[in-house]
Design a protein that fits this description.
Layout: E1 19-23, E2 26-28, E3 33-42, E4 48-53, E5 63-67, E6 78-87, E7 90-100, E8 113-117, E9 120-124, E10 129-132, E11 135-139, E12 155-156, E13 176-178, E14 182-183, E15 189-190, E16 192-193, E17 206-216, E18 229-232, E19 235-236, E20 245-246, E21 250-251, E22 260-271, E23 291-298, E24 314-318, E25 322-325, E26 329-330, E27 333-338, E28 347-352, E29 359-371, E30 374-381, E31 383-384, E32 390-396, E33 406-415, E34 422-424, E35 427-430, E36 436-437, E37 441-444
Parallel strand pairs: 2-11, 5-6, 13-23, 16-19, 25-37
Antiparallel strand pairs: 1-3, 3-7, 4-5, 4-9, 6-7, 8-11, 9-10, 12-16, 14-21, 15-20, 17-18, 17-22, 22-23, 24-27, 26-33, 27-33, 28-32, 28-35, 29-30, 29-33, 31-32, 34-37, 35-36
Length: 446
């Protein structure tokens, strides 16, 4: 069992918006709090002027966070600049954000959870505005026999304020900064709740363990947790915080841990009354099932190998022209050609739509190669930005290995019924800059 995939979250290009490193993605309605880690590239010398987020999850940027010193920790509406570094002609700003939310509506009896999109906005001192829109899943905290069958799954709580102890507070395990690699034993807190706990004769009525794992930003697990680790925990049904489990101290300077950003992920487990693993457990082989309860910046530096590699290993050029009738979908793209020997590493791909043309992304990205006379495609599901103008796909295998080898990278694009007629194109950023125009897109009548 291992976890090797990049997180399925709402990513935004760090050249034009905010790249989401991680965030508190799922928690119970008891624990209505926001945690977010992000990164953005800015012109040299530009700094953050203001950070806001949506308190009610309704898109309105009604909560302003204040800046506090790096590594301080706190329980207010605050952000810390973890690093501002020079890289490839830009400055790269990495920050952590925390604060209260008001998204505690009870989804019962018909729903297990309610989803909210939390708008995050960073205003820079040169007037630029950057945004991200992570989606959170707020779970029902209680359960009754008349609830829908999928209601009442086990969950782990998101520590906040000082309710669970820890120094300087319970939530210090999110955005934790360690330059030495040492993580004290009060940072990763597991509080396990099962709304069905102890109920006789019902599924999912017994729980005593979780899986947990530290996962690097590039999707690879920490050598300390090469596979999700089992941890015993005391389950309960109420909102008390006295039955927590704290993981022992860790030292990331041991066992070959890479420097950079790590997410602390947890999967609650439960069994049915017959003793078998319940279908309501969270699957530790699926990254999308994980609860993110914390994060660590370990000797973090933006130039430490986590940013996209330069395009010196490959060239990007426009693909063949495509015709796109109104109301249909087509696949404009670019051609990638390797310029040296060896396999080109996986890349992050950002695609942008032209403004005001009536085009929209389907969310699909295809990497295809010709093998003899056969076209062999690989599909990727991307994240569309909140404004619909950007598509981001992480860890894309370009399928080129060896000088002169080629592949095509294509984005699914739909023309609305009133799309502007004529020629246009997309902008592809494969790895790092510069961007490249896509195929010529000829928009026609139906």
């Amino acid at each position: 069992m291992t976890t090797l995939l990049a997180p399925k979250v709402e990513y935004s290009p760090d050249l034009t918006a905010i790249r989401t490193l991680g965030y508190a993605n799922r928690f119970s309605r008891w624990d209505s709090e926001f945690r977010y880690d992000g990164r953005l590239r800015v012109p040299r010398g530009v700094r953050i002027k203001e950070v806001r987020y949506s308190f009610y999850g309704n898109g309105k940027l009604d909560k302003r966070a204040t800046e506090v010193p790096r590594g301080r920790g706190g329980v207010g509406q605050e952000y810390e600049v973890i690093e501002q570094a020079r890289l490839d002609g830009f400055d790269v700003i990495t920050f952590t954000l925390r604060g209260d939310l008001n998204v505690d509506k009870n989804p019962r009896p018909g729903n297990a959870s309610l989803k909210y999109t939390i708008a995050v906005q960073v205003t820079l001192d040169n007037g630029e505005v950057r945004r991200a829109a992570p989606e959170i899943d707020v779970l029902a905290s209680d359960w009754g026999k008349n609830d829908a069958p999928h209601v009442g799954r086990p969950f782990v709580r998101l520590p906040y304020d000082s309710n669970w102890g820890g120094k300087p507070n319970s939530q210090a395990g999110f955005g934790y900064v360690t330059d030495s690699g040492y993580i004290p034993g009060d940072k990763f807190i597991i509080d396990l709740v099962n709304p069905r706990n102890g109920q006789q004769g019902v599924p999912n009525n017994n729980i005593e363990s979780v899986y947990y794992q530290l996962v690097h930003e590039d999707g690879t697990p920490s050598p300390d947790t090469p596979v999700p680790q089992v941890c015993k925990a005391v389950a309960h049904k109420d909102s008390g915080t006295g039955r927590k489990t704290m993981l022992p101290p860790m030292d990331l300077s041991q066992k070959g841990n890479k420097t950079g950003y790590y997410r602390f992920l947890v999967w609650p487990q439960t069994t049915d009354y017959g003793g078998s693993v319940s279908k309501l457990s969270w699957d530790p082989t699926k990254l999308e099932d994980a609860f993110q309860l914390g994060s660590v910046y370990y000797r973090y530096t933006a130039s430490g190998g986590i940013d996209p590699v330069p395009q010196s290993q490959f060239l990007v050029s426009p693909g063949n022209p495509v015709t796109l009738p109104r109301g249909t979908t087509s696949y404009p793209g670019v051609e990638v050609q390797a310029t040296g020997d060896g396999k080109v590493p996986s890349q992050t791909i950002n695609v942008s739509l032209p403004l005001g043309k009536g085009l929209r992304f389907t969310g699909q990205l295809i990497v295809g190669v010709m093998r003899g006379t056969e076209w062999v495609p690989t599909d990727y599901a991307g994240a569309v930005s909140a404004d619909g103008q950007g598509l981001t796909v992480e860890n894309v295998d370009l399928s080129v290995a060896g000088k002169g080898s080629k592949s095509a990278v294509l984005a699914g694009v739909q023309a609305t019924h009133d799309a502007m007629l004529g020629d246009t194109n997309l902008s592809f950023l494969v790895g790092g800059p510069p961007a490249c125009s896509s195929s010529l897109i000829h928009v026609t009548y139906q």
